[in-house]
Amino acid sequence: MGDLWSSLRTTTQARIGLGRAGDALPTRRVLEFQAAHAAARDAVHEPLDVDALAPAVAAVGLGEPLRVTSRATSRAEYLRRPDLGRQPADLAGLAGGGTGVGAGAGAGGGAQVGIVLADGLSPRALVDHGPGLLAAIVAALRAALGDDCTIAPPVIATQARVALADHVGEALGVETLLVVIGERPGLSVADSLGIYLTHHPRAGRSDAERNCVSNVHPPDGLSYERAAAVVAGLVRGARELGASGVRLKDSSLAPELAAD
After folding, report:
1. For a surface tag, which of 118, 122, 157, 203 has the fewest beta carbons within 10 Å of its beta carbon?
2. What is the pLDDT of residues 149-173, one digit of tens each?
3. b/e burial code for range 4-39 (CB count within 10 A of at least 16 → b)
4. DSSP for 65-120?
Protein backbone atom coordinates (compact mmCIF):
# COMPACT_ATOMS: atom_id res chain seq x y z
CA MET A 1 0.00 0.00 0.00
CA GLY A 2 1.38 3.43 -0.91
CA ASP A 3 2.14 6.30 1.44
CA LEU A 4 -1.22 7.75 2.52
CA TRP A 5 0.38 11.15 3.11
CA SER A 6 1.98 11.58 -0.31
CA SER A 7 -0.90 13.42 -1.95
CA LEU A 8 -1.36 15.71 1.05
CA ARG A 9 2.32 16.69 1.10
CA THR A 10 1.94 18.18 -2.38
CA THR A 11 -0.54 20.73 -1.02
CA THR A 12 1.38 22.06 1.99
CA GLN A 13 4.87 22.85 3.21
CA ALA A 14 3.90 21.71 6.71
CA ARG A 15 5.63 18.64 8.11
CA ILE A 16 2.98 15.93 8.10
CA GLY A 17 3.13 12.14 8.12
CA LEU A 18 6.83 12.06 8.99
CA GLY A 19 6.86 8.38 9.90
CA ARG A 20 8.74 6.57 12.63
CA ALA A 21 11.99 4.70 13.11
CA GLY A 22 11.47 2.79 16.33
CA ASP A 23 10.56 5.37 18.97
CA ALA A 24 11.97 8.31 16.99
CA LEU A 25 11.64 10.11 13.69
CA PRO A 26 13.45 8.72 10.64
CA THR A 27 16.94 10.15 10.29
CA ARG A 28 16.05 11.84 7.00
CA ARG A 29 13.22 13.77 8.66
CA VAL A 30 15.47 14.83 11.54
CA LEU A 31 18.08 16.13 9.10
CA GLU A 32 15.41 17.99 7.11
CA PHE A 33 14.22 19.69 10.29
CA GLN A 34 17.76 20.67 11.27
CA ALA A 35 18.43 22.10 7.80
CA ALA A 36 15.21 24.14 7.90
CA HIS A 37 16.05 25.44 11.37
CA ALA A 38 19.53 26.44 10.21
CA ALA A 39 18.08 28.23 7.15
CA ALA A 40 15.68 30.18 9.37
CA ARG A 41 18.50 31.22 11.72
CA ASP A 42 20.70 32.26 8.80
CA ALA A 43 17.85 34.30 7.31
CA VAL A 44 17.41 36.23 10.57
CA HIS A 45 21.07 36.85 11.37
CA GLU A 46 22.63 37.50 7.96
CA PRO A 47 22.81 41.28 7.34
CA LEU A 48 21.45 42.83 4.17
CA ASP A 49 24.01 43.65 1.48
CA VAL A 50 22.59 47.01 0.43
CA ASP A 51 25.27 47.64 -2.19
CA ALA A 52 24.35 44.39 -3.97
CA LEU A 53 20.60 45.03 -3.74
CA ALA A 54 20.59 48.69 -4.80
CA PRO A 55 21.33 48.17 -8.56
CA ALA A 56 18.44 45.72 -8.91
CA VAL A 57 16.12 48.18 -7.14
CA ALA A 58 17.32 51.06 -9.33
CA ALA A 59 16.67 48.97 -12.45
CA VAL A 60 12.92 49.08 -11.71
CA GLY A 61 13.00 52.68 -12.91
CA LEU A 62 12.07 54.79 -9.89
CA GLY A 63 15.53 56.28 -9.54
CA GLU A 64 18.48 55.49 -7.32
CA PRO A 65 17.26 54.14 -3.98
CA LEU A 66 17.76 56.25 -0.88
CA ARG A 67 19.12 54.62 2.25
CA VAL A 68 18.20 54.82 5.91
CA THR A 69 18.99 52.75 8.96
CA SER A 70 17.47 52.40 12.39
CA ARG A 71 19.09 53.15 15.72
CA ALA A 72 20.00 49.47 16.05
CA THR A 73 23.68 49.26 15.20
CA SER A 74 23.92 45.51 14.51
CA ARG A 75 21.74 42.49 13.82
CA ALA A 76 22.30 41.31 17.40
CA GLU A 77 21.09 44.62 18.84
CA TYR A 78 18.23 44.73 16.35
CA LEU A 79 16.96 41.35 17.55
CA ARG A 80 17.36 42.26 21.23
CA ARG A 81 15.88 45.75 20.96
CA PRO A 82 12.79 45.96 18.72
CA ASP A 83 12.25 49.53 19.95
CA LEU A 84 15.50 50.68 18.31
CA GLY A 85 14.41 49.15 15.02
CA ARG A 86 11.40 51.47 15.00
CA GLN A 87 13.46 54.65 15.34
CA PRO A 88 15.57 56.16 12.52
CA ALA A 89 19.22 56.90 13.14
CA ASP A 90 19.22 59.77 10.63
CA LEU A 91 16.77 60.92 7.97
CA ALA A 92 18.97 63.66 6.52
CA GLY A 93 19.43 61.69 3.31
CA LEU A 94 15.70 61.97 2.58
CA ALA A 95 15.66 65.77 2.52
CA GLY A 96 16.89 65.89 -1.10
CA GLY A 97 18.32 63.04 -3.03
CA GLY A 98 16.57 63.12 -6.39
CA THR A 99 13.06 62.58 -7.62
CA GLY A 100 10.82 59.64 -8.27
CA VAL A 101 8.89 58.92 -11.42
CA GLY A 102 6.35 61.70 -11.84
CA ALA A 103 7.36 63.36 -8.58
CA GLY A 104 8.29 66.96 -8.02
CA ALA A 105 11.36 68.42 -6.36
CA GLY A 106 12.87 66.82 -3.28
CA ALA A 107 13.21 63.21 -2.24
CA GLY A 108 9.48 62.55 -2.06
CA GLY A 109 8.29 65.50 -4.09
CA GLY A 110 4.82 65.23 -2.56
CA ALA A 111 4.36 61.92 -4.37
CA GLN A 112 1.21 59.88 -4.01
CA VAL A 113 3.03 56.69 -3.01
CA GLY A 114 6.30 55.93 -1.26
CA ILE A 115 7.87 52.47 -1.10
CA VAL A 116 10.30 51.31 1.59
CA LEU A 117 12.21 48.05 1.16
CA ALA A 118 13.13 46.89 4.67
CA ASP A 119 15.28 43.97 5.74
CA GLY A 120 13.09 43.10 8.73
CA LEU A 121 13.52 39.61 10.12
CA SER A 122 14.58 38.09 6.79
CA PRO A 123 17.05 40.12 4.73
CA ARG A 124 17.30 37.05 2.49
CA ALA A 125 13.63 37.48 1.52
CA LEU A 126 14.28 41.05 0.39
CA VAL A 127 17.23 39.93 -1.74
CA ASP A 128 15.29 37.03 -3.27
CA HIS A 129 12.00 38.78 -3.94
CA GLY A 130 12.32 42.53 -3.33
CA PRO A 131 13.15 43.79 -6.85
CA GLY A 132 10.64 41.50 -8.56
CA LEU A 133 7.87 42.45 -6.15
CA LEU A 134 8.72 46.14 -6.46
CA ALA A 135 8.41 45.99 -10.25
CA ALA A 136 5.04 44.24 -9.97
CA ILE A 137 3.77 46.83 -7.46
CA VAL A 138 4.81 49.73 -9.70
CA ALA A 139 3.03 48.18 -12.69
CA ALA A 140 -0.12 47.49 -10.66
CA LEU A 141 -0.20 51.01 -9.21
CA ARG A 142 0.06 52.58 -12.66
CA ALA A 143 -2.70 50.32 -13.94
CA ALA A 144 -4.97 51.16 -10.99
CA LEU A 145 -4.20 54.87 -10.56
CA GLY A 146 -3.22 55.83 -14.10
CA ASP A 147 0.06 56.72 -15.75
CA ASP A 148 0.17 60.01 -13.83
CA CYS A 149 0.57 58.10 -10.56
CA THR A 150 3.53 59.66 -8.74
CA ILE A 151 5.90 57.36 -6.86
CA ALA A 152 8.77 58.60 -4.72
CA PRO A 153 12.27 57.13 -5.08
CA PRO A 154 12.49 53.78 -3.30
CA VAL A 155 14.08 53.68 0.13
CA ILE A 156 16.15 50.76 1.42
CA ALA A 157 15.97 50.52 5.22
CA THR A 158 18.26 48.34 7.31
CA GLN A 159 17.83 46.97 10.85
CA ALA A 160 14.23 48.06 10.29
CA ARG A 161 10.90 47.30 11.88
CA VAL A 162 7.66 48.31 10.16
CA ALA A 163 7.16 51.46 12.25
CA LEU A 164 10.50 52.88 11.11
CA ALA A 165 8.87 53.58 7.77
CA ASP A 166 6.34 55.93 9.37
CA HIS A 167 9.22 58.35 9.96
CA VAL A 168 10.41 57.81 6.39
CA GLY A 169 6.99 58.42 4.87
CA GLU A 170 6.54 61.58 6.90
CA ALA A 171 9.94 62.86 5.82
CA LEU A 172 9.22 62.06 2.18
CA GLY A 173 5.83 63.76 2.36
CA VAL A 174 4.01 60.94 0.55
CA GLU A 175 0.28 60.34 0.78
CA THR A 176 0.43 56.55 1.08
CA LEU A 177 3.37 54.45 2.20
CA LEU A 178 4.13 50.82 1.35
CA VAL A 179 6.65 48.84 3.39
CA VAL A 180 8.00 45.68 1.76
CA ILE A 181 9.68 43.81 4.61
CA GLY A 182 11.20 40.42 5.34
CA GLU A 183 8.85 38.36 7.50
CA ARG A 184 9.84 36.20 10.44
CA PRO A 185 11.21 32.92 9.02
CA GLY A 186 9.56 29.66 9.91
CA LEU A 187 10.58 26.05 9.57
CA SER A 188 8.93 25.81 6.16
CA VAL A 189 9.61 29.28 4.72
CA ALA A 190 12.69 31.44 5.31
CA ASP A 191 12.25 33.96 2.48
CA SER A 192 8.74 35.38 2.77
CA LEU A 193 7.90 39.08 2.33
CA GLY A 194 5.08 41.11 3.82
CA ILE A 195 3.69 44.42 2.54
CA TYR A 196 2.31 47.01 4.96
CA LEU A 197 0.22 49.97 3.79
CA THR A 198 -0.21 53.16 5.83
CA HIS A 199 -2.22 56.12 4.56
CA HIS A 200 -0.88 59.54 5.64
CA PRO A 201 2.14 58.01 7.40
CA ARG A 202 3.54 59.75 10.44
CA ALA A 203 5.41 58.75 13.58
CA GLY A 204 3.11 57.19 16.14
CA ARG A 205 0.76 55.36 13.77
CA SER A 206 -0.59 52.15 15.33
CA ASP A 207 -0.83 48.72 13.74
CA ALA A 208 -4.62 49.19 13.62
CA GLU A 209 -3.99 51.96 11.08
CA ARG A 210 -2.19 49.65 8.64
CA ASN A 211 -3.16 46.96 6.17
CA CYS A 212 -0.98 43.94 5.54
CA VAL A 213 -0.49 41.56 2.64
CA SER A 214 1.71 38.66 3.75
CA ASN A 215 3.23 35.38 2.61
CA VAL A 216 4.72 36.70 -0.64
CA HIS A 217 7.25 34.12 -1.83
CA PRO A 218 6.54 32.50 -5.19
CA PRO A 219 6.17 29.79 -6.29
CA ASP A 220 4.83 28.36 -3.01
CA GLY A 221 3.41 31.56 -1.54
CA LEU A 222 1.58 34.56 -2.96
CA SER A 223 2.85 35.61 -6.39
CA TYR A 224 4.27 39.08 -7.06
CA GLU A 225 1.40 39.89 -9.41
CA ARG A 226 -1.35 38.76 -7.03
CA ALA A 227 0.17 40.60 -4.07
CA ALA A 228 0.65 43.74 -6.20
CA ALA A 229 -2.97 43.63 -7.35
CA VAL A 230 -4.19 43.50 -3.75
CA VAL A 231 -1.88 46.35 -2.76
CA ALA A 232 -2.98 48.53 -5.69
CA GLY A 233 -6.61 47.98 -4.73
CA LEU A 234 -5.85 48.93 -1.13
CA VAL A 235 -4.00 52.07 -2.20
CA ARG A 236 -6.92 53.14 -4.35
CA GLY A 237 -9.33 52.35 -1.50
CA ALA A 238 -7.23 54.29 1.01
CA ARG A 239 -7.27 57.34 -1.26
CA GLU A 240 -11.05 57.15 -1.58
CA LEU A 241 -11.65 56.48 2.12
CA GLY A 242 -8.95 58.82 3.41
CA ALA A 243 -7.69 56.17 5.81
CA SER A 244 -6.07 52.76 6.06
CA GLY A 245 -6.23 50.00 8.65
CA VAL A 246 -9.30 48.35 10.12
CA ARG A 247 -11.66 50.63 8.16
CA LEU A 248 -10.13 49.62 4.82
CA LYS A 249 -11.02 46.23 3.33
CA ASP A 250 -9.49 44.29 0.47
CA SER A 251 -11.99 44.32 -2.40
CA SER A 252 -9.64 42.99 -5.08
CA LEU A 253 -11.65 39.78 -5.43
CA ALA A 254 -15.02 41.54 -5.62
CA PRO A 255 -15.35 41.37 -9.44
CA GLU A 256 -14.48 37.66 -9.45
CA LEU A 257 -16.96 36.92 -6.69
CA ALA A 258 -19.65 38.93 -8.45
CA ALA A 259 -19.02 36.97 -11.65
CA ASP A 260 -19.50 33.71 -9.77
Report:
1. 203
2. 899 999 999 999 999 999 999 999 9
3. eeeeeeeeeeeeeeeeeeeeebeeebeeeeeebeeb
4. PEEEEBS--SHHHHHH-HHHHTSBS--GGGSSS---TT--SSSSTT-SEEEEEE-T
User: What do you get for the CA distance between the two ends of the chain, in Å?
Assistant: 40
Q: How far apart are CA 192 and CA 194, in angstroms?
A: 7
Would you state the pLDDT for residue 252?
67
| Residue 5 DSSP label | T
Write the secondary structure of 200-252 as one string of H (helix), E (strand) and C (coil): CCCCCCCHHHEEEEEEECCCCCECHHHHHHHHHHHHHHHHHHCCCCCCCCCCC
Cβ–Cβ < 8 Å for 113, 176: yes
Distance (Å, whole) CA 96 – CA 98: 6
Instruction: Give the pTM.
Output: 0.86
Exposure letters 120-159 (e unless 16+ CB within 10 A, then b): bbbbbbbbbbbbbbbbbbbbbbbebbeeebbbbbbbbbbb
